[in-house]
Amino acid sequence: MKKAILAVSFGTTHTDTLKKAIAATERDIFAAFPDHEPHRAFTSRMIISALNKRGIHIPSEEEAFAALKDYDEVIAVPTHIINGFEYEKVLAAARQCGSIVKISRPLISLSADYDAFIKAMEPVFSEKDTQYVLMGHGSGHFADSMYAAMDYRLKASGLANVHVATVEGYPPFEMVAKRIKNTRKAVLMPMMLVAGDHAKNDMRLSWKPKLESLGIKTECIMKGLGEYHEIRKIYVEHAKEAVQD
Predict the structure, then answer these.
(1) How far, in Å, CA of 239 to CA of 174, rounded?
(2) 8 Å CB contact between 36 and 71
(3) Is 137 a catalytic residue?
(4) How many Cβ atoms from other residues are within 10 Å of residue 16's Cβ?
(5) What band does 188 get if pLDDT is binned at 50, 70 and 90?
(6) Number of domains in the chain
(7) pLDDT tens figures, 69-90
(8) What is d(CA 206, CA 243) in angstroms, rounded to the nearest whole number?
(9) Strand, helix or coil at 32?
(10) Which of 14, 80, 137, 238 is catalytic?
């Protein structure tokens, strides 16, 4: 039998976080299915185009599934954070392969995923007198509600000093900044697979100075979620569950 495993990410043009986050996540996923031929795809056409100009070709999800349609089994593992537009691209493209494809859910989808995420990340929030702000991307998709739900679940789990803000969705950064304006120290972290454009520009060059202007000593952790072993384990578990189901 010809069997393949396809890791599908939004993508990044930053080679440092590509290696540290995306490649590391793919490595763990592929290692869990050693009898499957490994493949990679990105869903961002802008990133694919930018990489092509550098002589680097990463197939889109449509191209990847087209190349795998004659296989006997394909396991698709999207590394997206939510069930948003990018995840829906994977579902749509997979239709050309029919029933041979099994697709795992993104990082945060079911209720249990919130608990798994919090358990994986809780050791990072070690300083009780520090306010931690997780920078999510945000979306016009209804799945954007995950970010507000995660903020609520963090606090319900006893992590009152951990907050979620988004670049393009809800909750907005301004709301969170107002909430923590009286704190002395804040740490900003990406709630994205990679620490790419948004982390290096929006988080470090925009959010950080805004908090510092309020008199808050602010630090940025330039580390994507894909760099955390416990987060990568969640993606692997989701893939295994997809195969079993």
Answers:
(1) 36
(2) no
(3) yes
(4) 14
(5) very high
(6) 2
(7) 999 999 999 999 999 999 999 9
(8) 42
(9) coil
(10) 137
